[in-house]
Amino acid sequence: RGAADGVGGHHLVVWGKDRMTAPDYRAEAEGLLTKLVAWRRDLHAHPELSFHEVRTAGLIADTLGELGYEVRTGVARTGVVALLHGGRPGPTVMLRADMDALPIQEISEAPYVSQTPGVMHACGHDGHVAIGLGAASLLARHAADLPGNVLFVFQPAEERDGGAAAMIADGALSDPAPAAAFGLHLWNAFPFGRVVAQAGPIMAAADILKIVVRGKGGHGGQPHETVGVQHHRGDGRTARDAPHLLDGRARDRVDPSAGAAGWRHSGHGRRV
């Protein structure tokens, strides 16, 4: 007989052994480890840049199709969307992973080093895809018991603008629309097997910011007649400080933020 207790506003239902035996998801997940490692290393050896994830998308689509998912390919050019129908009524939950690599030359002696010159999975998206496929494998085994649907979204072009917006424009979040969405990011600072979560932001995002600082040019031999914006703004700070100045007084001090200037341009002349 089932018994219910209120836990944090929710209800925890404990079933007797004669009614239900809960699956040992941890043991099943550990049983998939060898396959996850193989997927990740294969993907790491064959990285693909944003909107060029053709081989990656093919591996994902073939794997999910074999697991019985309804698979859509070509979403936002190279994205993959797959739906698993649960055996019981309930909401749709989305699990999302990104697929693209970075334009970086990998220098490594690992047997699964990148085989594509100038391209590397340096941000862990190979691991994200492998984790997504592992979760899809495990959930497919228990589809009949799931209260609702699971929507897997494998997104292209996370490393450049447009991947998420293109997926949404192509209907990745409709029919069915997810009631909740979950994603993750690998982080080498934590030991293997640990999952970390918190309310609110947990990692920084990249964005584009353009700041124009105007000064007065002149000859390098007569700096007293110039206003060099890279070196002086009139208040003792330099243009290099601009990203940090955005963390203004109106911001809540307990709200985390991070800023850095990745590129600055102030002309090509060596003397002016």
Provide a descriptive summary of the structure in words.
With 272 residues, this protein is α/β, with parallel strands linked by helices. It is 22% helix and 17% strand. It is built from 6 helices and 7 strands; from the N terminus they run ββαααβββαβαβα. The chain has helices at residues 25-31, 33-45, 54-66, 125-141, 163-169, 242-245, and strands spanning 3-7, 10-14, 70-75, 79-84, 88-98, 147-155, 180-182. The strands form 2 sheets. It has a 5-stranded mixed beta sheet with strand order 3-4-6-5-7, sandwiched between helices. It has a two-stranded antiparallel ribbon with strand order 1-2. Helix 2 (33-45) runs antiparallel to helix 4. It is elongated and about 80 Å long.
Integer average pLDDT: 83
- The overall strand count is 7
Distance between the termini: 84 Å
Large-scale geometry: elongated
Q: Biggest β-sheet, characterized? A: 5 strands, mixed
Structural class: alpha/beta
Helix count from the secondary structure assignment: 6
Strand order of the largest sheet: 3-4-6-5-7
Strand proportion, as a percent range, falls in 15-25%
- Regions with pLDDT < 50 over 5+ consecutive residues? 1-20, 232-236
Calculate Rg over CA atoms. Answer: 25 Å
Order of helices and strands: EEHHHEEEHEHEH
Helix content: 10-25%
